[in-house]
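Course assignment 3, question 2. Fill in each field.
Student: A.L.
Task: Predict the tertiary structure for the chain below.
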Amino acid sequence: LVGLAALGWAGIFGPHSTSTGAATVGLTINKQPVYFVKRVFNPAAPPADMPPLAPGEDAECTTAFAANASVEGVAQPRDTNHATVTITHVVMTLELKITIWTPLQATTQVMDHEEGHREISSYYYQSADKLADGIAATYVGRHLDVSGLNLAAASQEALRKIAGDIDEQYNRELNPRPAQVLYDAITDHGRKKVPAKDAAAQAIKSALIQIGRAHV
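Answer field:
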């Protein structure tokens, strides 16, 4: 999600809030509580808003990670058509929404399996604010060269692009999908009688080892 950019023009800064939950000056990381809901459906008539089940699946856990960055800056014109914009503040709002869909009269094994998926997503979200802080910090103080007949509009567009780049990098680096795929492989999509907690922990560890982050 591309955040809106607030621009301070010719030395006048835009709205500047106090950094919250971030150790770096010029950063505000707003990490929202996890939104979680359980939905029970009739397999013969699933609700219209339910995502389709994969082949062989009886239930599913859908997760939606979201990052919405906004970037503020101050612009210094160099001439009529060129300016340097300095990024002064980055605000990131982080969210995680989880929905577990289980059929009527679902077995305990099926429900436990979906809880394992939920645990994996929740694990990655625990340190999401630290990840966001580390990414956004690299942009604070960065200088952008802009040009155009309308320098204010060009500067706004440059800041919007940076906000989109930040969100894209966050989503790319967070990436719980490898752990989720490993979890399904370990449990055979819940068919094997493997404790969900153990399988989730194993999947997370293996996924982190694969990308060299086993210490996380």
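Instructor remarks: Residues 151-174 form the longest helix (24 residues). The CA atoms of residues 4 and 91 lie 10 Å apart.
Grade: pending
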